[in-house]
Amino acid sequence: MNDMKYNLLYVIVNKGLASRILHFSRENGVIGGTILKGRGTVNDKLLKTLSLDDIKKEIIIMVMTQSLAITIMQLMTKKFKFDKPNKGIVYSIDVQGICGSRSCQLDNAEHEGSKVGMYQSIMIIVDKGKAEDVVEIAAKAGSKGATIINGRGSGIHETSRVFAMDIEPEKEIVLIISKSSDTKDIVQCIKENFNIDKPGNGVIFIQDVSEAYGLFE
Q: Beta strand pairing status for 203-213 and 119-127?
């Protein structure tokens, strides 16, 4: 049995920087990654928190050992100045926190009695056209901002794959980084407003953020 721990590394930057980020990561030991297109959606009051505005975004997702993730985050923050506002965000998530598609259960029992980090990642997959509504509902429940990812394949019969799960062309993904204390309210509000518990209405993933740079209150 392999006891080595792995992390998923997320990097959110302005359009045009993803290739440079991925090249830099490969030079420092990362095997590869996936680049997704997205857009930031926050108002002026919330801008300082996630440093995301209405310009186009690129999201890089990479998997690596936990020790390498810590090193890469530090090197990347220094290289691309993620410790400054509006430069980008990089954060890591334990791989075992990932659930899959229809079998996903929103059960946080595993966290009881254990220490939960300051931030959590909430990923919501819904039908195309609903992402903006999800962001609006989440904001009412305490979300400080979000990134919308279009789940499109390069061909009409293709699908995008995120975490080995097919994302059909008519789907949208909403990615929210929330304070752990706000996660329950945000998720509950989305579930109630979009009937997520009913099959076919969407999927929600909740993951602990191991470490994060570039988040500003």
A: antiparallel
- Three-state SS for 169-188 is CCEEEEEEEEEHHHHHHHHH
CA distance 159 to 76: 30
CA distance 16 to 184: 34
**What CATH number did the domain enclosing 144 receive?**
3.30.70.120
Q: Give which of 19, 41, 6 is closest to 173, Cα–Cα.
A: 41
Q: How many domains does the chain have?
A: 1
Whether 53 contacts 42, CB under 8 Å? yes
pLDDT tens readout for residues 125-137: 788 889 999 999 9
| pLDDT, tens digit, 9 for 90 and up, residues 33-42 | 767 777 665 4
Domain of residue 55: give its range: 6-213
In a domain, 39, yes or no: yes
